[in-house]
Write a structure and sequence with these properties.
The complex is a heterodimer of chains A (450) and B (81). Chain A is built from ten helices and 25 strands. By secondary structure, chain A is of the alpha/beta class. In chain A, strands 2-1-10-9-11-12-13-14 form an eight-stranded mixed beta sheet, sandwiched between helices. In chain A, strands 6-5-3-4-7-8-18 form a seven-stranded mixed beta sheet. The chains are: A alpha/beta (450), B mainly alpha (81). Chains A and B meet through helix 7, helix 8 and strand 23 of A and helix 2 of B.
Chain lengths: 450, 81
């Protein structure tokens, strides 16, 4: 699609629907969902409901100068730097409780009739990365970049569903696919469990369903998966192993099953459709919009779909993942790959980043919390492989003294300071932790099962 | 202790630690309706691997995802047996 096109134009004439838990909306037939004039505004979009987020995005693309799309789990204490770095001047929300002191507030609501005519702007879409550190990191995209991997064909008979939140990169891809293809999309709801969502997907005749391998494992563990009959099953956001690919093939023998490689920074890289884990080595150096290379054992991607820049100062970043986003246009994905025969297999991440069900964790962040306990001398946090969520967080701890309740105290501290997926699932006390020649904590041996 | 006792005890422990309420513990309780989330199951599977020495999810040649608590216990009994 041409870069100047906006989401508002794309939906015109569409019969597609956004299907929420409490009702459905045809974005082509609805009027304004936001009453304020936000031309040229720098918007922080922070809603409690995904439907309102989708409606606000459709209305604001081509109107606002910048939209910072806030995923549901961002903690309030992380907002001030986000607001400062992105120059936010208005909060758009469906809940007055999410207003930010000192900033203009604009309510997004179910649409009222009447089309708004507002002067056009080139809108910058700002997404948060999956979150390796406590403070979210923002990356800027354009609509053209975000939609670069999307085939322009209209597919009005398609009903998309996604286990992702549309306010993250993976879910955003599906929202845009649905809107540009004039297809429908079933949105999940924060207040419904997996089984209820599966039942609703089935009732709405979902044909194309996407999620992380962890989402899919959870779906296969629900008896409600019997009610869905997708003809396209897609996995992304985590490395898809052979077990989950085989599991999906067995459950949905007639469906096309693909696993896609994408990240918030690098955009959509490629999709593998042969049912095998990893990707063919022929993908490297093949012609096309997306270029790939393996350097120092990690996958690098260069494409017009990569994010244009980080928003905010890299100077405030710390830790081993600190790096400029682009080198000659290449993004280092930090995903390590190993060539076996004619195929590359994923072999973990550099810098020890732990991926729990698609959410990324920097071990240093968890270590910093643990080390904040006066009874801890040192700690090492690592990932342990899990057949359920890909990885879980485990910690090894050197105690400063004998303390029978130390384990409970450390866990209580972690639960207070960290979201649940970052809290170590297992704690082990060790007499000492190995250091490298340079005096740094050795991460080579971290985690017996890592 | 039997495999069943160990598995059941781990469900209780993880539910308590993760501040979840177990809504059912009978053999036909559907795992995803038991009040536990994916993270809880990941923790249970890791701890059971340490206690029982088996991870049937990874070890199994067949592709199988248990649906009920009874399935889950049998999955471990078969693997540990």
């Amino acid at each position: 699609m041409p870069p100047a096109e906006t989401l508002r134009d794309a939906r015109l004439g569409s019969r597609a629907q956004l299907i929420g838990r409490r009702g459905r909306v045809n974005p082509a037939q609805t009027g304004r969902a936001i009453d304020a004039d936000l031309s040229g505004a720098h918007v922080l979009l922070r809603t409690s409901d995904q439907m309102h987020a989708a409606l606000a995005l459709i209305e604001l693309d081509g109107v606002a100068a910048r939209i910072v799309i806030c995923p549901p789990d961002v903690k309030p204490q992380h907002l001030p730097p986000v607001i400062r770095q992105a120059g936010v001047d208005v909060v758009v929300s469906d809940d007055p409780a999410l207003a930010v002191k000192g900033l203009r507030f604009a309510a997004v609501h179910s649409p009222s009739p009447g089309e708004a005519v507002m002067p056009p702007h080139q809108t910058e879409w700002i997404l948060f990365t999956s979150g390796t550190t406590g403070a979210p990191r923002m990356v800027a995209h354009t609509l053209a970049g975000l939609t670069g991997a999307i085939q322009p064909a209209l597919s009005p008979d398609v009903v998309w569903g996604t286990f992702y939140d549309i306010r993250r990169y993976g879910g955003m891809q599906i929202l845009l696919r649905a809107l540009l293809g004039q297809a429908s999309l079933v949105l999940s709801d924060a207040h419904e469990d997996v089984a209820d969502f599966l039942v609703r997907l089935g009732a709405n005749g979902v044909t194309h369903l996407t999620g992380t391998p962890s989402h899919w494992r959870r779906a296969l563990m629900s008896p409600a998966h019997a009610v869905i009959h997708p003809r396209y099953v897609r996995l992304s956001g985590e490395i898809a192993d052979q077990a989950i690919l085989d599991g999906l093939k067995a459950r949905f023998p007639d469906a096309a099953i693909g696993h896609a490689y994408a990240s918030t920074e690098a955009g959509v890289g490629f999709e593998v459709t042969d049912g095998l884990e990893g990707f063919p080595s022929s993908f490297i150096a093949r012609p096309g919009a997306v270029e790939m290379k393996v350097e120092n054992g990690t996958l690098h991607i260069r494409s017009p779909r990569t994010a244009s820049e980080y928003v905010g100062g890299l100077a405030s970043e710390s830790g081993p993942t600190k790096k400029p986003l682009l080198t000659d246009g290449w993004v280092d994905t930090t995903d390590m790959v190993e060539l076996r025969g004619e195929r590359y297999h994923f072999a973990g991440r550099t810098g020890g980043i732990i991926n729990v069900g698609g959410l990324k964790i920097n071990p240093e962040e968890v270590e910093a919390v643990i080390n904040g306990h006066p009874g801890v001398r040192a700690s090492r946090v690592s990932g342990r492989k899990s057949p359920i969520t890909g990885s879980i967080v485990v910690a090894e701890i050197v105690a400063a003294n004998d303390n029978a309740t130390l384990k409970e105290e450390i866990l209580a501290l972690c639960r207070e300071k960290l979201p649940a997926f970052k809290v170590p699932a297992m704690l082990r006390f060790v007499p000492a932790l190995e250091l490298t020649a340079g005096g740094k904590l050795s991460r080579q041996e971290a985690g017996r099962h890592a | 202790m039997s495999v069943e006792t160990i598995v059941r005890a781990e469900f209780q422990t993880v539910a308590r630690e993760q501040e979840k309420t177990l809504t059912g513990v009978s053999d036909d309780t559907v795992l995803l309706e038991s009040g536990l989330d994916s993270l809880c199951f990941a923790i249970i599977v890791a701890r059971l691997e340490d206690q029982l020495g088996v991870d049937p999810f990874t070890a199994s040649e067949d592709v199988y995802f248990p649906v009920t608590l009874g399935d889950f216990i049998k999955f471990y009994q078969d693997a540990a047996g």
